Amino acid sequence: MTEVCPAPTRGPRHVGLWALVGLGLLSASLLSWNLEAITGFKGFLDAWDRLAAYLGAFAAPDLSGAMLAVCGRLAIETLAVAILGVTTGFLLGYPLALGATRCLVLGDEPAPRWVRWPRGVLLEGCRLLLDILRGVPDIAWAIVLANLTGVNAITGVLAIGLSTAGIFGKVLSEQWDNLDPRRYAALRSSGATRAQVFLYGVQPLAARTTLSFLLMRTECAVRNASVIGVVGGGGLGAQLWDEYTDGSWSRVATVLLGLLLVTASTDLVSNLVRQRLRVDPNHPRARGTIDRRSQSRRRLQVALVALVLVLLATWSLAPAMATAAGELTRIDWDFAAPYTLGLFVPDLSLAALGSAAKHSVVPLAIGFLATVLGAALAAVLVFPASIAFQVEPHRFLGENPPRHLRLLRWLSVLLVRAFALVCRGVPEVAWVILLAVFFRMGVTPCVLAVAIHSAGVLHRVFTESLDNVEYRRLERTGGTCRAQVFAYAALPRVWPDWRTYTFFQFEVNVRLGIALGVVGAGGLGHMFKFNLDWRQHGAAATFLWAMIGLTVAIDRTSRWLQLRRNRC
Amino acid sequence: MLRTTLILAASLLAISPAATAQDAAPKELRFTVIPDFNKGKLADTCKALGEHLTKKLGVPVTYVPANDYTMAVNALVSNKVDFAWLGGKTTVDALDAGKGQTMVLATRDIDLDFKTYFIANKKLVDEGKLKKIDNLADLKAMAKDFTFTFGDKNSTSGHLMPRFFLTAAGIDPNKAFKSECGYQASGGHGATLKAVASGATDIGALNFTYWEKASAEDKANAPIIFVTPGYVDYAWVGHQRLGKEMNLKITEAFTKLDKKNAEDKAILDAWSAKEKFQAADGKLWDSIRKVRDSLPAGFLQ
């Protein structure tokens, strides 16, 4: 009689799963779906007609010289906006991150109350400022800023810069505060001041994740810059929307191809940079030992390229800067006050607050459903795209597959990765436009657009975290086939990372849900713009603060759930 | 000390641009228009107008694009442009936000009797599901079967007036249709026409001049089912900063446009004027203000 080892209790995970399903159903029931394209035969035929007309034109993009010249110019503008946006965001976000870092501002050495109290105010003040910068989506920033700096690329730079600063500041300060204090205990015990601890301990220890996050935000900024034109920020976005509303599908196709080219090449270049900066000797594909000299040489190379890019971007946007400066100096602030300063003063009547709460549901539900769908799709696609499991399983399994099978596996990696690249390379707004042809504008295309886009983004980080697992960890399981090693050795190891990424994506997606409201999903973004258009500045302010409130609520929940994002 | 500060402040005020604008003739004039149509095409039309006005006024006149209607109003009241082509509602908005310093410079002959067309997708009309009606109330019973889109949220002919007429006919556009009424986030009336013609939306409401000027194909795919009664719409709105003399010159530049002159005719046609522009009193737009303020605020909450 052999005693079977009791199965580990799975209670908590079941609770989580059911909560997820329940929340998903609740979200789905709260949205007003437009599904006639797939629920009725006639609706489907009509939708298919619309799609066919579109696909016909899409197969023959307008490649005339004039159109290509316009797209080329706008593509360069898009890149320049992204580069300067991230630079602005970093320069603005870094000092705020310093102010929002507990171990730097407060420390834990005893200090009299009159010293600690103002420091606490500084800490909370910086955190609040970061929440505001981050909570307002860049599209909403652009809507507000375009009234001051005009319709040009600088509006896009500022909008992306402000929201990036918020994200940077928050993530950097969290990375610093989440470091294990034991790692810089030696510094502290030798009497280093808080500034010295930060400079010689905290900052260098987190430098790698900081850099990695900077790269990731640059990619995001390129995607955001390609749609910020919809609300006046320059780049390809304005052209895309203009051609879409005009029904010129062949030109929509040209602009979309241009967009894809810009985002996909950024994606690939950033991969290259990551590889050049990879210094982890434990990484499965580390380049042997890395000596100090080659390491600093590579860093110098990357820094130089970055500097040149920033200078080029500045140079190409110099005319836009002059325009924006001219716009700013003309403003008669007496008249501009209601739609600038007025947005700080929300209407706190019960009706306005109730309305803000009611409309917060839409972005929350969109964000939740899209994240769950996107994460599920990304998770399914990780295995066929993993270098470790498709290309190099012999390094931990010892199997020796025949040549044609190896080829097939390579193909699977490339195809799935290319698919994910397209998913994230086409910006959400462009997905909405594509899907709206079939489903008609409404909630459905918006949810699916965000889901597809998140699937692409999550797929990248999911696969990366899987492929970063050291092979010796996989060897020990002694599994017989790849699937088993994946399920029982790799998955448990990357699961916490995946969960963290997914939660962060949820926060991003809620903001996307807000932003898409402006173009047709309804909810907070729609109501904000509507009230702004009808010059109800108090009510518009209420919706603006509701956006910030949502972000803060999600952020505090993620802290409460102790989801940490030490790695990016 | 206080006195010196005051004197300093006063002298600073004296040399501020707002104060000097009235004395010396401005070196450059800037105007904007509400983006009620495809922005690329709008830019071409405005460039041509700018060139014409430069000749007539003797100072360079440039077009400054606005990304949405609100931006055009804000640009005018906050001195970023000197005059602006606004819709009925945005004219009223600019008159209100201008604290008494903004005024109507000119309007088209058609703006005193402007109309909204309700259009429907051709398929639905061919199938007999929708037909031309004389009274919006006839739409009430079947509204539940169709989707509906307004134009820009700030448009008079694309949103304010059709909403007003629908509400008067007992149809709540937010609730009566198959789904909540849509709006065109960008692209104005052109977008509405395309949305209905392509079948993306069943019914739409738009500025009648844009429908009349549209291609035969679009018109055939989106036939008219209802024409609203007339109301007051678009106007060129100016600001006192420019001084009486200059504003008068701008009004004249518009009212003197003559269909007999080829260059003038091109501008009048591009602007859809029937015969001419004419001077008008801002009081005429009081009726639009009344409509704007009479709408139940439900759709803003």
Explain what the structure shows:
The complex is a heterodimer of chains A (568) and B (301). Chain A folds into two domains: 20-60 and 350-568, Orthogonal Bundle (MetI-like fold); 61-329, MetI-like fold (Orthogonal Bundle), CATH 1.10.3720.10. Chain A is 79% helix and 0% strand. Chain A has helices spanning 11-30, 36-39, 41-59, 65-99, 102-105, 113-135, 138-149, 153-178, 185-189, 194-225, 236-246, 249-277, 292-316, 318-330, 333-340, 350-382, 387-390, 394-397, 403-425, 428-439, 443-467, 471-475, 482-521, 524-533, 537-560. Chain B folds into two domains: 29-112 and 232-292, Periplasmic binding protein-like II (D-Maltodextrin-Binding Protein, domain 2, 3-Layer(aba) Sandwich), CATH 3.40.190; 115-230, 3-Layer(aba) Sandwich (D-Maltodextrin-Binding Protein, domain 2). Chain B has 13 helices and ten strands. Chains A and B meet through helix 3, helix 7, helix 11, helix 15 and helix 16 of A and helix 4, helix 5 and helix 8 of B.
Notable features of this structure?
heterodimer, A: 568 residues, mainly alpha, MetI-like fold, 25 helices, 79% helix, 0% strand, disordered N terminus, disordered C terminus, B: 301 residues, alpha/beta, D-Maltodextrin-Binding Protein, domain 2, 2 domains, 6-stranded mixed β-sheet, 4-stranded mixed β-sheet, 43% helix
Task: Give me the secondary-structure topology.
The complex is a heterodimer of chains A (568) and B (301).
Chain A lengths: L10 H20 L5 H4 L1 H19 L5 H35 L2 H4 L7 H23 L2 H12 L3 H26 L6 H5 L4 H32 L10 H11 L2 H29 L14 H25 L1 H13 L2 H8 L9 H33 L4 H4 L3 H4 L5 H23 L2 H12 L3 H25 L3 H5 L6 H40 L2 H10 L3 H24 L8
Chain B lengths: L1 H13 L2 H7 L5 E5 L5 H19 L3 E3 L5 H9 L5 E4 L1 H10 L4 E7 L7 E5 L1 H5 L21 E2 L6 H13 L19 H10 L5 E5 H6 L2 H6 L2 E4 L7 E5 L4 H12 L6 H9 L6 E2 L7 H9 L7
Parallel strand pairs in B: 1-2, 1-3, 6-7
Antiparallel strand pairs in B: 3-9, 4-9, 4-10, 5-7, 5-8
Helix pairs in contact in B: 4-5, 5-13
